Amino acid sequence: MNTTPQDNRNVVTLVIQHKVRATSLAAYEAWLKRTVSTARRQPGHLDVNVIRPDDGGLHFTTVVRFADASLLQAWVNSAERQTLVSEVLPLLEGGDHTQVHDDPEFWFTPPSTTAAQ
Asked: Which of 26, 40, 28, 37 is CA-nearest to residue 92?
């Protein structure tokens, strides 16, 4: 019987970075809660983490993991996600920035810091 941990070589991660307009912070956080809940219901969704900005900051980073690239791509291309992105764009400065990482482990630096990536 194989008792090794689940193989995570196919796990992909979507990193979403948003700079929220100062006047839209409450609306953005309400939108983000809805979006996280929606993402959790998608096939292949593994987990989601939201990194809030430091005191007074407006840069949010959301990290969403899926079991494989095709399931992530299905979520990214879905009409449901496209509607959510359309809803949030007026609340943001600079738009919706996404990166896909296919390595189970990666490093990133939130835009509000000066630390090395």
From this structure: 28
Q: Of the candidates 36, 26, 31, which has an alpha carbon nearest to the alpha carbon of residue 62?
A: 36
Q: How far apart are CA 43 and CA 89, in angstroms?
A: 25
- pTM for the whole structure: 0.81
Nearest residue to 47 via CA among 34, 33, 32, 63: 63
Lateral strand order in the sheet of 59-66: 45-51, 59-66, 12-19, 97-101
What secondary structure letter does DSSP report for 15? E
Residue 57: per-residue pLDDT: 86
Summarize pLDDT for 53-70 with one digit per residue, the tens.
Answer: 887 789 999 999 999 999
User: At a CB cut-off of 8 Å and minimum separation 6, what does 25 contact?
Assistant: 58
Q: What's the helix, strand, coil split of the chain in %, to 5?
A: 35, 25, 40
